[in-house]
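User: Sequence recovery, please. Input:
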């Protein structure tokens, strides 16, 4: 339970500003793309610091890593709550992203090292569910629980939740022997992992799927605030409740992978994802809701199946392997948010959706490759 709480709390910090991006744009008198840096800076920080934390996860006990990471993430959030300078806010968000891997990547490596193979798919699916709950919680904090114009209080709430979750995790985790006592992880380098095609295609699958998912959800507030919808920030935030689908899809995808194989689950998830993109493009709120439910269903099926497939392939170096996964995952998200922001600014929402359909070919092809192995 402490592990689930810690992952959820960590992910709560990532998406706090996503539903209030139009509010930030107006408050700081900046552009849509610059306001979106309050999200992409976190993702960039996560991507950049995953490899160092993956290295540490294979060498150090998990407790000091979690303690340092939790304190840094909480302090970064408190700084965001008090600053009135957009540049400082974005910098603090980057610092939060830099230390979130201490709470997520290192924990995934810990689970991969300690769980038997037959439980790994389902537990990793539950781990994904915790990321879903955290992502939903952050969005609700930023755009609904606290009124949008008082988004700063959301950072305070997230900081408190993070510190409480760190305490719960440290209290509940079993004592671990330092990974540095084992020689096997030290023989497995990042290069040896990334040059394995069976692992690389999983990494590319993660990058492609999250690039699409983050793009859709990051620019959805702008789309729904414009004609023909004209929704308020609160109403748009309520639509993020479809995100709860991921809580159920994580363990379900793990069980489906156990029964039918990871490749079949990846192909099915990517297909649902693609069809849902076409539905969300329609100019009716009912279509948007149905499309978002399908997008969440497809994405989290792909994500959970990919995480499970990756860790089942490993016999050592779990810290480094999971760090690479999260690196590709968040680099994909950062590229997606940045690239589709420019596309949205110049070509509009439909061009964003069409671009996302093309990128979805990556997880689809990865699924077919897994089925052939």
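Assistant: Recovered sequence (373 residues):
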């Amino acid at each position: 339970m402490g592990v689930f709480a810690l992952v959820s709390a960590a992910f709560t910090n990532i998406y706090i500003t996503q539903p209030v991006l139009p509010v930030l744009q107006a408050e700081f008198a900046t552009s849509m793309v610059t306001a979106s840096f309050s999200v992409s800076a976190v993702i960039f920080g996560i991507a950049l610091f995953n490899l160092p934390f993956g290295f540490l996860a294979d060498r150090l006990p998990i407790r000091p890593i979690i303690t340092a990471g939790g304190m840094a993430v909480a302090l970064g959030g408190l700084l965001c709550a008090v600053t009135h300078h957009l540049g400082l806010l974005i910098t603090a968000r980057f610092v939060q992203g830099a230390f979130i891997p201490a709470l997520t990547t290192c924990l995934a490596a810990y689970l991969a090292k300690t769980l038997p193979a037959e439980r790994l798919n389902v537990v990793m699916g539950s781990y994904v569910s915790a990321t879903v709950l955290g992502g939903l919680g952050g969005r609700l904090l930023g755009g609904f629980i606290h009124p949008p114009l008082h988004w700063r209080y959301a950072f305070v709430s997230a900081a408190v939740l993070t510190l409480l979750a760190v305490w719960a995790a440290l209290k509940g985790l079993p004592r671990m022997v330092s990974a540095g006592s084992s020689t096997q992880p030290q023989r497995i380098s990042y290069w040896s992992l990334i040059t394995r095609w069976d692992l690389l295609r999983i990494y590319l699958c993660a990058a492609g799927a999250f690039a699409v998912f983050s793009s859709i959800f990051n620019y959805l507030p702008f789309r729904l605030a414009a004609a023909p919808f004209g929704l308020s920030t609160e109403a748009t935030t309520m639509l993020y409740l479809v995100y709860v689908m991921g809580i159920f899809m994580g363990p379900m995808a793990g069980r489906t992978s156990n029964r039918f194989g990871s490749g079949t689950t990846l192909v099915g998830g990517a297909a649902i994802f693609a069809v849902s993109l076409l539905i969300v493009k329609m100019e009716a709120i009912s279509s948007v809701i149905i499309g978002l439910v399908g997008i969440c269903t497809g994405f989290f099926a792909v994500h959970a199946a990919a995480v499970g497939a990756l860790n089942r392939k490993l016999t050592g170096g779990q810290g480094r392997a999971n760090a690479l996964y999260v690196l590709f995952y968040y680099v994909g998200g950062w590229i997606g948010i940045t690239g589709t922001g420019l596309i949205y600014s110049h070509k509009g929402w439909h061009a964003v959706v069409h671009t996302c359909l093309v990128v979805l070919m990556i997880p689809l092809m990865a699924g077919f490759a897994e089925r052939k192995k």
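The domain at 2-174+185-372 is CATH 1.20.1250.20 (Growth Hormone; Chain: A;).
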